[in-house]
Write a structure and sequence with these properties.
Elements lengths: L1 H27 L1 H4 L3 E6 L3 H12 L5 E7 L9 E2 L2 E5 L4 H8 L3 E4 L6 H13 L3 E4 L17 E2 L2 H5 L8 H8 L3 E5 L4 H11 L5 E6 L2 H11 L10 E3 L5 H11 L3 E4 L6 H6 L1 H18 L5 E5 L10 H17 L5 E6 L2 E2 L6 H10 L4 E3 L5 E2 L1 E2 L1 H14 L4 E5 L5 E2 H12 L5 E3 L20 E5 L2 E5 L17 H8 L10
Parallel strand pairs: 1-2, 1-5, 2-4, 5-6, 8-9, 8-11, 9-10, 11-12, 12-13, 13-18, 14-17, 15-20
Antiparallel strand pairs: 3-4, 6-7, 16-19, 18-22, 21-22
């Protein structure tokens, strides 16, 4: 009873504060200079309360909150920051009409993309603008506020997933450690650096062969840093002597190996380059990592039952990691996940460029499906997987349900607001209609996390890959992958 009285008192104070703020703006002329957009918030959680406070009291806010919607029956009739919860998603159209709202703001930062799509459809049907707050991982460096509210992106509609992680477990093996990230300038590597940085490692060593990419990731981690800072290392994982020098002089305790070539159609034409980086480059880093406590190899779902050069070379890399596990005191494992909706090399980049050019959008097959996640989600799960994985395993990260790529294309056309044709070109060499995370003989268990399956990987002796050469036979790569087995290959 006392708690209810306290809540009512808090609501009363907020209501008075809201009324005063409106009076102040009206009499100061602020409201007349820049009218605010009347908005309904969907979601009555902690993010909504924080946003409401910012929307009401931040003079830079573009929004005037006029109601909150939430599907939880227990929230109905409550007030958040003085703003009433006026219904559920079923009441959206009526609430828009009653409050004269011009926008609906989706305030659940860790929601599934399917829910975002559904509320967006309701908002569009009601004739109002649909806006969102960023994913939780997008606001790690600042408190959520009204300035973070933005237009919906395709990644919000298809990439968002509800993820729970154990930050304490992750911090336990990152904080105070010397951490090396190879491929630091890439999509996954750069996000790894940003997320690792917040766990306060003793040293974050960012390695890449691309100097421009290195500068970009360094500035994203620390805007005041300079390229002569020792945190950045210009080196190529193909250079085994250079790798040994880096490990000898920097002595990393934790390694995330994200350096790889990943453009599947291009690698089909240049398999030798895929071998040099994905196989021999991984071997060079592994052999240099003699005294590390933890080694995490970033793999791909295409390594499960592989049918492409990319899949073959990443599967071989997983097997090399499993082999060295038995020779070292540290833990060596791989993390396997699906398609990342990042800024580079993703289907979104291709579709975006095609839309900007007036179309058409090219999709390989009307029924092709992929599992999609954002870069932030993929890296968050990589860090969690590394905290719970055992040596020699591949940890498989699987989020949500597979999405038809044709549906992604159609939605991007809708967001662009222009008539763009979609053309189907047929599956490319090495491309699957659907995506698998486990090979035909793999069985994944989930003992620690519902989104992370553990799969044993058969070891492969390095002697079997050293002679692959610059022009390997693709059939040889396929044979090296072999049927999954836990039996150690003969040296």
């Amino acid at each position: 009873m006392r708690r209810q009285r306290d809540n009512r008192a808090e609501d009363l104070l907020y209501t008075l504060g809201v009324r005063y703020e409106r009076w102040r703006r009206e009499h100061s002329g602020e409201a007349r200079r820049e009218p605010r957009t009347r908005a309904i918030l969907f979601g009555a959680g902690s993010a909504a309360r924080t946003l409401l406070h910012s929307m009401i009291f931040d003079p830079r806010s573009r929004f005037e909150p006029v109601g909150v919607l939430d599907d939880d029956p227990g929230t109905q009739g409550e007030r958040l920051a003085g703003i009433a919860v006026v219904g559920t998603r079923a009441d959206l159209a009526a609430a828009v009409e009653r409050t004269r709202a011009a926008a609906v703001i989706f305030t659940i930062g860790n929601a599934e993309g399917s829910l975002v799509r559904e509320i967006r459809a309701l908002a569009i049907a009601a004739g109002v603008r649909f806006l969102v707050v960023p994913e939780m991982s997008e606001t790690l460096d600042h408190a959520l506020g009204a300035q973070d509210i933005r237009d919906v992106r395709i990644t919000d509609l298809f990439g968002r997933h509800r993820i729970a992680t154990d930050s304490a477990a992750i911090a336990g093996w990152l904080s105070g450690k010397r951490v090396l990230v190879t491929g630091a300038g890439g999509e996954i590597g750069s996000e790894l650096c940003r997320q690792i940085h917040r766990f306060e490692p003793a040293e974050l060593i960012m390695l890449d062969h691309d100097e421009a990419a290195l500068q970009s990731v360094q500035l994203s981690v620390d805007a005041r840093a300079e390229l002569h800072d020792p945190s950045v290392v210009l080196a190529d994982v193909r250079d085994d002597e250079r790798m040994r020098e880096v490990f000898r002089t920097r002595e990393p305790e934790v390694v995330f190996h994200a350096a790889a070539l990943q453009h599947q159609p291009l690698l089909e034409r240049h398999p030798g380059e895929a071998v040099k980086t994905n196989v021999l480059g991984t071997l060079a880093v592994l052999e240099a990592a003699e005294d590390v406590e933890l080694f995490v190899n970033v793999s791909t779902a295409k390594a499960a039952d592989p049918v492409s050069v990319l899949g073959y070379t990443k599967r071989i890399a997983e097997m090399l990691v499993a082999n060295i596990e038995s020779e070292r005191t540290g833990t060596f494992l791989s993390v396997r996940f699906g398609n990342v909706l990042g800024e580079r090399r993703s289907v979104l980049t291709t579709f975006g460029a095609q839309i900007a050019d007036g179309g058409p959008i090219t999709v390989t097959h009307p029924e092709v499906t992929r599992y999609l996640m954002t870069t932030q989600e993929a890296v968050t799960l990589v860090l969690q997987a590394a905290a719970i994985g055992d040596g020699g395993e591949a940890l498989v990260l699987q989020l949500g349900e597979p999405v038809r790529i044709a549906e992604v294309a159609q939605t991007m056309v809708e967001l662009a607001g222009e008539p763009i044709d979609i053309v189907y070109t047929g599956l490319r060499p090495g491309e699957k209609l659907g995506e698998t995370f486990l090979g035909p003989h793999e069985e994944g268990s989930r003992p620690h996390h519902p989104l992370i399956a553990h799969v044993p990987v058969p070891p492969l002796n390095p002697s079997e890959v050293r002679g692959l050469g610059a022009h390997p036979d693709v059939r040889m790569l396929a044979d090296l992958c072999g049927p999954p087995s836990l039996e150690t290959r003969a040296a």
